[in-house]
């Protein structure tokens, strides 16, 4: 029995409503998973498991890193500003810019995310707003630093820090603003470069006492400085392994022996991708064959999520077919109404004088010509039809 148009609309509406409710259930599950992820990050620290967090800067880098055995991901401000704005990491990205990218990365991955929150994007009220926003987005560890605004990359010159008490106040507010202690606050100080190691260590101690769960002493320039940093605190300490920066790049086991609990690698993915792109684009511009190793098409299709699309299409094949049939039916009715030739050929030909002398064959040819874009104006339909027929 064929359903009426109203029945079909009711059926589609009911299915859409059911899928919306299903999506709500999925979001509840995702919220639970996010909480579990945050707890797992805290558990890794408690269990003294060294945490490696590759730097990710967009959704492709995040999804690739998420498929590795690394324990976490690090959303690098340097990389996000470069990839999203095409600008240097010099305080140009807004809270909204960074929050949107963090939320997208969390939604597309499974590993806990450490996210760069710059200086908290303003005063104490802004810090509270930043922490709540990042936590709601599913960020596991929120990094806040003590630079003057606008801040700069921690391995570039001309950085200045705020007074210790100003940052202590920010850490207190950040710690209070979160809704769960499973969302961790990572306090970073850039004091080492301008004020020396002892001043940086004193700041780290003050930030830990204010409620920071982890510490990040930026830009040590020697193994000796790194050993002092790793052994100085009771809370976990993170090492910034920035390729191309001033800090020695060391293997994880050596970092752990120094006392570090985790390491982030902000630039390695960004620089590797940039190097590959430069080589490939230069080769194309010079008319040379591309010799760089490429990510296999099939692997990329799998990584980016096409299998989920195919699963969806298989699951809802009947609904998709129904929607396609309805669209075809409506299109055929509209076409038939617009290009119908009333009556028989004999009736049409008998009325030839009123039709400018055209007989039925002339009119039919003119109708076909109009559909195909001639005699005025079905060009877009012709192109649509051609594109459809070649898919």
Characteristics:
9% strand, TIM Barrel, disordered C terminus, alpha/beta, 57% helix, eight-stranded parallel barrel, 391 residues
How would you describe this protein?
The protein has helices at residues 5-46, 59-66, 77-85, 95-108, 124-137, 164-177, 191-195, 197-210, 223-230, 252-258, 268-285, 297-304, 306-315, 317-339, 345-350, 360-371, 379-389; strands spanning 51-56, 73-75, 113-116, 141-145, 184-189, 214-217, 237-240, 262-265. The protein is an alpha/beta fold and 391 residues long. It has 3 domains: 9-266, TIM Barrel, CATH 3.20.20.60; 305-340; 344-391, no CATH class. An 8-stranded parallel barrel has the order 1-2-3-4-5-6-7-8, surrounded by 10 helices. Strand 7, helix 10 (252-258) and strand 8 form a beta-alpha-beta unit. The longest helix has 42 residues, at 5-46.
Give the structural class. alpha/beta
Query: What is the top-level CATH class of the largest domain?
Result: Alpha Beta
Mean pLDDT: 82
Shape summary: globular
**The number of domains:** 3
Compressed to H and E, one letter per element, the order equals HEHEHHEHEHEHHEHEHEHHHHHHH
